[in-house]
Design goal:
Number of strands: 10
Radius of gyration: 21 Å
Helix content: 40-55%
CATH class of the largest domain: Alpha Beta
Strand content: 15-25%
Number of helices: 13
Mean pLDDT: 86
Shape: globular
Largest sheet: 10 strands, mixed
């Protein structure tokens, strides 16, 4: 159900990705901001530079990148890869600030309520953010309209993994055990009503399965439970699994994508294994508070794109288990609206059934 258009399915060479020179990228940042500033002024009838964001960013300013999870978590690692490159293009310092707690709701609330001046941005990953505000029990103070997307810089393919000592050596064996003992095979998620939970419910419906779903407070807790043998298997993004998979603590059984993951080239997709399900992936999207001037958003968007296309950043993103993939702000907004529409009834149903 969560199908995402890709620029590339596998890590590509600089030539194929069409990287521009640094001077070209800097020109793009300035041009995008200037055009957006002009359009904003024409649309609103105001000419004040401070109001339409034309002077953004001011020299010496600091931008905060809010990460709604703990230091060392996947989002934190990616923010610390992207922030220096974005800051260099903008000529400012971008400081990564961790605001963890409440299944990311604390950090997302802080982002939504920040002053809309471009000096605060943060992760609004799709589809994981849906479980934060579509689940009433989380008492979020935000929704889709609280944010203005800046862009999405990477994809995270979804995989199924088991402990290295698991008796299940294939997805077929695992699902056969689930069918033999419905509701007894345990699987970990990173939160109630989050993307893991929705994806698992989708698998249950499409494949006629029934799992014993166990919710944890974070992706790190979920992986720790898998490594310790507390749960039989787990589902989630490659970036959460890759470290333990490389160390041999986790065996990845399948990839829930339309193509094999470049990080696990020998692992076939779920469809290739005979299980027909729609591809699933996560988008690492970045947003600012709603009401941020159009020119300011455009400047941030151009800088985020420039960082995404930087060869050193691409290498670091791939090393962190993600697939660099640029998606502009307008496309993120469309994706957000479409996925929310399809996810909302699923979350409502799974909440009502618990």
């Amino acid at each position: 159900m969560f199908t995402t258009p890709r620029i590339e399915n596998t890590p590509a060479s600089p030539k194929r990705r069409g990287w521009a020179s640094r001077s070209t990228r800097l020109t793009a940042v300035v041009a995008a901001a200037a055009i957006a500033s002009l359009l904003s002024a024409c649309a609103t009838g105001t000419a004040g530079a401070a109001d339409d964001g034309a002077e953004f960013p001011e020299a010496g300013s600091t931008i905060e990148w809010i990460v709604p999870s703990a230091a060392g978590a996947g989002n934190d690692i990616l923010a610390r890869i992207m922030a220096p490159a974005m800051g260099e293009d903008l000529g400012v310092n971008i400081k990564v600030v961790n605001k963890e707690g409440g299944n990311q709701v604390i950090g997302l609330n802080a982002l939504a309520s920040a002053k809309p001046d471009g000096l605060t941005l943060g992760f609004t990953n799709i589809p994981s953010i849906f479980g934060r505000y579509l689940d009433p029990s989380k008492q979020a103070g935000f929704d889709r309209e609280s944010f203005a997307p800046v862009g999405s810089f990477a994809l995270n393919d979804i995989v199924i993994g088991v402990n290295k000592d698991s008796p299940y050596t294939s997805t077929q064996e695992l699902f056969d055990a689930v069918k033999a003992s419905p509701g007894t095979i345990t699987v970990g998620t990173d939160s109630r009503a989050g993307d893991d939970h929705v994806n698992l419910r989708t698998l249950e419906k499409e494949l006629g399965l029934e799992f014993n779903i166990v919710h944890y407070n974070s992706g790190a807790d979920k992986i720790a439970a898998l490594v310790s043998g507390e749960v039989d298997f787990a589902l989630g993004g490659v970036s959460s699994f890759i470290g333990q998979a490389k160390s041999g603590e986790i065996n990845v059984l399948s990839v829930l994508s339309d193509v094999p993951s470049p990080f696990f080239p020998d692992v076939t997709t779920l469809n290739e294994q005979g299980f027909e399900v729609a591809p699933m992936s996560n988008n690492f999207a970045v947003s600012v508070p709603a009401g941020t001037p159009a020119a300011t958003v455009a400047a941030l968007e151009a800088a985020l794109q420039a960082a995404t296309e930087d060869p050193d950043v691409v290498a670091a993103l791939e090393n962190a288990g993600t697939v660099p993939n640029w998606m502009p702000a307008a496309d993120v907004a469309t994706l957000w609206e479409e996925r929310e529409a399809t996810t909302k009834p699923i979350i409502a149903e799974l909440i009502a059934g618990e």
